[in-house]
Structure formats: C-alpha cells, structure tokens
Amino acid sequence: MNETMLCVVGRVATRPVYRETASGPAARFRVAVTARYWDREKSAWADGHTNFFTVWANRQLATNAAASLSVGEPVIVQGRLKVRTEAREGQPGWMSADIDAVAIGHDLARGTTAFRRAPRPEQSASPDRPEPNWETTLGNSPPSGEQNTQRPPEHAAVT
Q1: Phi and psi of 45, rounded to 5°?
Q2: Per-residue pLDDT tens digits for 94-134
Q3: CA 133 to CA 4: how far, in whole Å?
Q4: How far is it, in rounded angstroms, from Cα 136 to Cα 151?
C-alpha cells in the first residue's frame, strides 16, 4: 500500500470535536506545527512557518483523544497524510492537509502526563471457571494429558 505515513510534533490548536457516528466514535482537531531554526544574525532561536493539519481519529482513539487533549498542549501525531483540493466560495485550488491518525500522544519532552487505561466495555457474564493451578514447579512435567501452565518469570522476555 502506497500511503504517506508521517509523524508531526506540534500543539493542539482547536478543541477536539467528538461525534458518535454510524461507524463508531469519531473526533477531529487541528494541530499547529511550527518549524524552529537558529538565526545566526540574532544568535537566537526563531519561529519559521506554521503548518496546520486537521487530525481525524476513530473508534477508541477518538474517545481517548477527546477526553485527553486540550488547546495548547504539546502532542505527537502519527498517521496517514490526506491532501484534498476543492473549490470553496467560487475559489478553485483550496487545499487542506488532513491526518488520519493511528496514534496520538502528549510530547513528554515538553512536560509530564499521567496515563490511565481506558475501561473496557462491559462483556457478557461467562460461567465461572476454576482458577488454573499456577504453582507448577520448574523441571516437573505436568501429568499426562495436561498442559504446562507455568508462567514465565515477570522479568523474562516473552516472544
């Protein structure tokens, strides 16, 4: 698939707008991305051109973005670039740059944040099953016909 994936670092420019649609939750907001460069004449950092992107999020990403983002916060957005050209108010050639977001997060180089896992949707109650025996010792093979239920140590890499 020939999609243009990009990652932008900027600030939230507009309040996220959240909508419940037939295909699930959707949210959009604008992000401002300003290039900075070192001005040798002034011996100081200077702001360059600011680009604005409309960020579109869907499903759980939309719900979490709407609940987490506020205007002015530094963010990192990764997604697919969509450039559209259309006529508006009789003027041809109006362009917009949209990002169909895959991931959105706060920029931790500019501050701190507190992550909270989103609650999972309620699932139907399943019949109670007994807790498996996790106490199988290493080196002992399980009785024939049973699977080994030994958990890997917490620090072991699981591949």
Answers
A1: -75, 145
A2: 888 999 999 999 999 999 988 888 776 665 555 666 666 66
A3: 49
A4: 9
Helix (H), strand (E) counts: the chain: 1, 6
**d(Cα 156, Cα 159) in Å, to the nearest integer?**
10
Residue 90, classed as helix, strand or coil, is coil
Vertex 117, ends 152 and 54: CA angle to 5°?
125
Q: Which tokens sit at 48?
A: 């360059």
Q: Which DSSP category does 145 fall into?
A: T
Query: What is the pTM (predicted TM-score) of this model?
Result: 0.69
Non-local CB neighbours of 96 within 8 Å, separated by 6+ positions = 54, 83, 84, 86
**For residue 78, what is the DSSP state?**
E
